[in-house]
Amino acid sequence: MAKKLTILFSLFLCVYASAQTSSSIVNQLSSELQVVENIKTKISQTVKEVQPGLLQLEMTFTNIKDGKSVVESYEFNMADIDLNTIRSFTNKDVIQVQLLAAKKQKVIKKTTDNTKVKFEEEVFVYAKNIDNGRNLVDIFKSLVPVSIDIVEKRLSLKTFQDHIDWLVNNVKTVTLENKQFVQKITQNSKYASKLEFSVDEVANQKSVNTTYVFNLANINPNSVFAEVKGDFIEVNLDTKRKLKTVKTLVATEQKDYKNNLSIYCESIEKSRDLQKVLKGIIALAEDKIENAVPKIKNVSEGLANINDYIKTVTVNNVAYNQNIVGDCVATINLKESTPSKTTDESFTLNFKDLAKNLVKYDTSGKNVYVEIQTKGGKNFLKHVVNQELKNYDKSVRFEFSEVEDAIISAKLFETIIEKCEAAETKLVGTKKDLLNQVKSTIKKVTINTLTYEQSLEIQDNNILLFKSTEVTPKNSKSKVYEFNMKDINPANLNFNTSGTTVFVTLNTNYSEKIIKYYEDGAIKNYQNTIDIQATDIEEARLISDLFKKILNQ
Fold this sequence. Notes:
Radius of gyration: 37 Å
Number of domains: 4
Strand content: 35-45%
Keywords: Signal
């Protein structure tokens, strides 16, 4: 029964409040606030509406004996007050009305004698008697739903640009007793959702300028929250997945990228509006980057777009000159120059070997980059440094000037990988034609000081003879493998790398050791595998595909 009465009372309050404006209720409140005395103190109370729903309650405490007074001013929005905690109670020789902020948030601004500012989670109003206390409780309770409704409807921003304009016009200077934050937001001309937030922190006649460059699409809307810091409020923003995508400059000098920033407010109301606008615009911004990604028709078009972003990138004293040449099979040229040295690198790869889900953009210190990686972490990227062949690698990284350029390029890389995966290699011809093609593809391979003299002989339709002579500056070793094509397992035929070498491995069915093997002319134990060397990944892929095509015919 008590629960039903509570629900009915709440409904009554909502209906009663909806029939009144906040101003009319505040007028009732003003007429109900009275001067209250106890044995030591006279308490004068006044209230005014700063803006709809926002109250300023002022109390003057005068010592009856010596006449000295202390003035306390409370500024708060009834939308922040927990309706269920509003009650009157007796506190020794006075009756008070309790107003507690919901979730114990410190959203009540208290100013003492017009100087000392502090944020509190509660305020207590004084009643002349118990009937006055009951009336005050009813009036305060009627203000809560009206104030909530006002707050919800206060900002009627609709478009993305409406939100941007609000931020530009409302993120301004915050002046405190001993400090000042001179703030300014500017919209980027190239990327609509990219903002530059500049703040000069002025204290003790010293000024520190910090500039944050960030994209609203990279901000986590659930991270936007207000935090009281002494006599002011910070609205904090964190990036999605905590990625450090906020470019930070102190006095024009670039610092490491960050994953958060704060905007300063001098009142709870301004922080409330700022949070609402930020959460609204972040949702609208998420499509902006997507719409900025070019719709490419082919791989060449996608690589041309990426090349525009990576051509020349400078971070502090390091210059990066980068470009990608080719199509699905491409060579990446990277030159890194510092005042003391220059490093030239190249990577050769096939985009179909890359993992679309492992393309990622990120930052490291002051650098923005995109990293692409192979499927399964296979070392399929040919790597050359200053014209010296290095071990095959599994990833390569590109440097970018801006986070947005990296995000767009990452999405382009994903599309390029998709297109290359969809491109099929068509091998046509009879079994004899394909065998002859394998024969002509298997040839001499030189890796640094090691040479493999290789040949494939076709004895008849199924018997093959593979010869390989390994030659080094000091010695040589010849190997001969004689095998029947029917004994090779097409499902277990693959190519791989080891250090600087690329090879195709033929495996027998069930790993049976039935391949006749000679070493330097002497017969040795039967084998179950054959390794054929290739000059690069594409040659190995072709040999592998040809054998599979032949074996599956």
